[in-house]
Design brief:
Helix content is 61%, strand content 8%. By secondary structure, the chain is mostly helical. The chain has a 3-stranded antiparallel sheet with strand order 1-3-2. β2 and β3 form a beta hairpin. α4 packs across α5. The longest helix has 31 residues. The protein is flat and about 65 Å long.
C-alpha cells in the first residue's frame, strides 16, 4: 500500500496556513468528521461532486463543500447512484442538473424507499431465523 500521498497530505494538513481559518476544512478534517477515507473524498472530487480549493498539496474545503459532502454521504447511505446523488446535490443547491444527468424525482425516491423497506423486511426475517437457530442450540454450562 502506498502511503506517500497520505503522508504528504497529512503533513500539509498540519502545516497549511489556511488550516487555522475556521471557514475552511482540510481533507483530514472532513475525513475525521464524517468518518470516511481520504481516498473516498478524492474519489468524490474526481467524479466532480466536490471541488476543494488547493494551496500546494493541501485541499481546502469551504463550508459549502462540507455541506455538499453531507448530502453526498446521505445519498450514498440511502442507496442512490452517483448520478442520482449529483441530481440530489443540484436540487439542494438550486442549480441545474448536470448535462446527461438524471433528474431526481419523487417517484425515484419512492422506488428507493420501497426497495429499502423490502430489504428491511428481509433482514428482519433473517434475524428471526437466526434467533430461532441460536435458541435451538443447547445451552453450555459455564465452567
Amino acid at each position: 500500500m502506498d502511503f506517500s500521498s497520505f503522508e504528504a497530505e497529512r503533513t500539509a494538513d498540519h502545516l497549511g496556513a489556511s488550516h487555522t481559518d475556521p471557514q475552511f476544512f482540510t481533507i483530514g478534517d472532513l475525513a475525521r468528521e464524517f468518518d470516511v477515507t481520504l481516498r473516498a473524498l478524492r474519489f468524490y472530487e474526481d467524479k466532480g461532486l466536490l471541488s476543494p480549493r488547493r494551496e500546494g498539496l493541501t485541499r481546502l474545503y469551504s463550508a459549502a463543500e462540507r455541506a455538499r459532502l453531507a448530502i453526498i454521504l446521505k445519498g450514498k447511505k440511502l442507496g442512490f447512484t452517483l448520478a442520482e446523488i449529483k441530481a440530489m446535490v443540484a436540487l439542494r443547491e438550486g442549480t441545474a442538473v448536470p448535462a446527461g444527468g438524471l433528474a431526481l424525482t419523487r417517484e425515484k425516491c419512492a422506488e428507493q424507499l420501497a426497495l429499502l423497506e423490502q430489504q428491511k423486511t428481509e433482514i428482519e426475517d433473517a434475524i428471526g431465523e437466526l434467533r430461532q437457530m441460536v435458541a435451538a442450540f443447547p445451552a453450555r454450562n459455564a465452567a
